[in-house]
Amino acid sequence: MKIQYFKGTDTLYIEFRAADIAESRDLDEDTVIDVDAHGNVVAMTMEHASQRTDAPNLTFEEIAA
């Protein structure tokens, strides 16, 4: 999984897994979901991220099973 925040364009890109993208689907005018040939979500792009998320303050925590 890879998360990138592009401050210059205020864009958040989340790649859930490395795979070929078969189709990009608009969720709304500022959010795009990329899916593989089987319809599995591969990545998401979100514009105006600082207004819609707390991306600059991202934290990650893995919880043991």
What is the global morphology? Answer: flat
Helical segment count: 1
Class of secondary structure makeup? mainly beta
Using only C-alpha atoms, the radius of gyration works out to 13 Å
Please give the order of strands in the largest beta sheet. 1-2-5-4-3
Q: Note the beta-strand portion.
A: 35-45%
Low-confidence stretches: none
Residues in helices, as a percent range = under 10%
| Count of beta strands | 5
- Run of helices and strands: EEEEEH
Distance between the termini: 19 Å
User: Residue-averaged pLDDT, rounded?
Assistant: 92
Characterize the largest beta sheet: strand count, sense, and whether it forms a barrel: 5 strands, antiparallel
Q: What is the number of independent domains?
A: 1
